[in-house]
Design a protein that fits this description.
360 residues; alpha/beta; D-Maltodextrin-Binding Protein, domain 2; five-stranded mixed sheet; 13 helices; elongated; binds glutamic acid
Length: 360
């Protein structure tokens, strides 16, 4: 009897795992998603991407029969799950406390965070006068001016000391005041390679040679630093991190976590449905920056946006993506078991490597 029961069990298992009798064949599960490369990509109606392949694998292992339904934005996607139009949702849906109150989320499917994207590659000076003035009065300039002043005090004093007694020397008086002013003027002029006089006393000339050489190094360093500052400023349009977004127009997607965060930064959030519209707004310069999910922006910056956009700073505001279900969904637990198995047996790592280039 025991043997018979075992045989029946083995037969049933064989049927299920061969796919002849799907375990959940009775219902076609409606999976809401939205296009957001590289999580979800759409080509001629065919869906691919990290989230799609992950769900396909979960469905394969659990024998869930399903069909995808594509929604325009995360807000309508979540609504479809809440109202029962869809049975679950997968794309780049961040797990948040507010959403957890209304939905059930699977185990995290990807670590994410927000990042800033700005237009770049067009570093040509669009406001040369503004650039000149802002460089002239920048902190960098003040810092270098102070360094130059302190440095010049040394040779000025040495030259004053040895040159003041020379009858045709560059210091017309032996007194400290105003003698040191003449010496300092000579040192400052030499530093900018503009000196029109040279010391006559030999010891002072030795000092002058050392000072001239130091000047060359000084000007080279100063020029390099100013060039770097200018380039960074032009590329970044003055945006170096989230704190610089205040007062700026920032493109986000409708109903996203980014839209909420941008609102809190005293920036003006301009909402779009499709991510392509977000990128387009940046290229059209109708916004100053984009704030969105780091994996999505990184993919864009490395592919279609290459050379046209720049990612600013590291990701901030850590978030995890999850698969979203209505509360009490019967699919939640089977999904979690399959997802954890996929993580445990290395399939997840392979998927991650395929879509993000690095093993997780
Ligand atoms: N991770 C974002 C969120 O869940 C994505 C938004 C979107 O799909 O546009 O809010």
């Amino acid at each position: 009897m025991k043997l018979f029961r075992k045989l029946v069990l083995v037969f049933c298992l064989a049927l299920v795992s061969s796919g002849i009798v799907p375990a959940h064949a009775a219902t076609e599960v409606r999976v809401a998603t939205r296009v957001l490369p590289p999580m979800v990509m759409s080509q001629d109606g065919a869906l691919s991407g990290f989230s799609i392949e992950l769900w396909n694998e979960i469905a394969r292992r659990t024998n869930i029969v399903f069909k995808y339904e594509v929604y325009p934005d995360v807000r309508s996607l979540l609504e479809s799950v809440q109202t029962g139009k869809a049975d679950l949702g997968i794309a780049a849906i961040s797990i948040t406390a507010a959403r957890e109150e209304v939905f059930n989320f699977s185990q995290p499917i990807l670590n994410s965070g927000l990042q800033i994207l700005i237009g770049g590659g067009n570093a040509a000076a669009e406001n040369p006068l503004g650039d000149l003035l802002s460089l002239l009065f920048s902190r960098t300039s003040v810092m270098w001016l102070s360094i130059a002043f302190l440095l010049a005090l040394g040779p000025a004093h040495l030259v004053w000391l040895v040159e003041r007694r020379h009858p045709e020397g560059i210091i017309p008086t032996t007194r400290y005041f105003p003698g040191i002013f003449y010496a300092f003027y000579w040192a400052a002029a030499t530093l900018t390679t503009q000196a029109d006089t040279a010391p006559r006393q030999w010891l002072a000339r030795v000092v002058a040679i050392f000072w001239m050489f130091s000047s060359i190094v000084f000007v080279a360093l100063y020029t390099a630093q100013l060039t770097a500052t200018l380039t960074v400023k032009q590329i970044n349009a003055g945006i170096g991190g989230p704190e610089d977004l205040a007062g700026k127009r920032v493109a986000v997607t409708k109903g996203s976590t980014a839209a909420k965060v941008v609102g809190g930064l005293r920036a003006e959030a301009v909402e779009f449905s499709k991510i392509d519209e977000v990128y387009q707004a940046l290229h059209d310069k109708s916004v100053d920056a984009v704030v969105f999910d780091s994996p999505v922006l990184m993919h864009y910056a490395a592919n279609e946006g290459k050379g046209r956009v720049t990612l600013v700073g590291p990701p901030f505001g850590k978030e995890d993506y999850g698969i979203v279900f209505p509360q009490g969904s019967k699919w939640l637990s089977v999904t979690n078991v399959a997802l954890l198995r996929i993580k445990e047996d290395g399939t997840y790592q392979r998927l991650h490597e395929k879509w993000f280039g690095v093993a997780k």
